[in-house]
Design goal:
The protein is mainly beta. It has a single domain (2-170), classed as Immunoglobulin-like (Sandwich), CATH 2.60.40. The chain is 8% helix and 58% strand. The protein has helices at 119-122, 129-138, and strands at 9-15, 19-20, 25-34, 38-40, 42-58, 61-62, 72-78, 81-98, 101-103, 108-115, 143-155, 162-170. Strands 2, 5, 6, 7, 8, 11 and 12 form a 7-stranded mixed β-sheet that branches. A 3-stranded antiparallel β-sheet has the order 1-3-10, with no helix packed on it. A hairpin with a 2-residue loop joins strand 5 (42-58) and strand 6 (61-62). The chain is globular.
Length: 171
């Protein structure tokens, strides 16, 4: 793999399990080993949800001709009829595991706990866009699904971060 040449180190994430319910506590362990010392802002653990919506397109125009508020969008069309896929980050919570310092080449080992959000936490969208976003959800035609992830990263300013992301299931 070409990216292996530029790899600064590696993070391992080990969770107590992969299937969780709302409000449950995720317990795990993070191990990190760097190839050479690095100054970093810290080690961060994030739980987040990516929501993907697939809609029908007719004549190259989306169902309502709307663009996503944030996220990435891909379209597939054959003969003017196709689908579009929009992925947005629907929820995100970050917890700092260790602070700003120079991280050496020794192995770092951290135990952590992070809460799985409950339904009330997930639906707390605030600000002027919340009304628009909720209205658009009512008119979504197509398939919509959510994937949950835990991501750990060593935030290296002006450099390539060291990180690991794993998918989890929340019911």
């Amino acid at each position: 793999m070409v990216f292996g040449l530029f790899e600064k180190g590696k993070i391992e994430l080990n969770l107590n399990k992969f299937n969780f319910t709302q409000g449950e506590v995720i317990e795990g362990n993070l191990k990190m080993k760097l190839k050479k010392p690095a100054n970093a802002k810290g080690i961060f653990l994030t739980i987040f949800a990516e929501q993907t919506t697939q809609n029908a397109n007719i004549g190259g125009i989306g169902v309502f001709g709307m663009q996503p508020i944030s996220g990435r969008k891909t379209s597939t069309s054959i003969g003017g009829i196709g689908t579009s896929k929009t992925t947005t980050r629907a929820f995100e919570f970050t917890q700092q595991i260790d602070g700003e310092k120079e991280y050496g080449i020794q192995e770092y080992n951290y135990d952590f706990k992070i809460n799985v959000p409950n339904q009330n936490t997930q639906s707390k969208m605030e600000g002027p866009m919340s009304g628009i976003a909720n209205t658009l959800k009512m008119f979504t035609i197509g398939n919509q699904y959510t994937k949950w992830f835990i991501e750990a990263k060593l935030d290296i300013p002006k450099g390539i971060d060291v990180g690991k992301k794993i998918q989890i299931n929340i019911t």
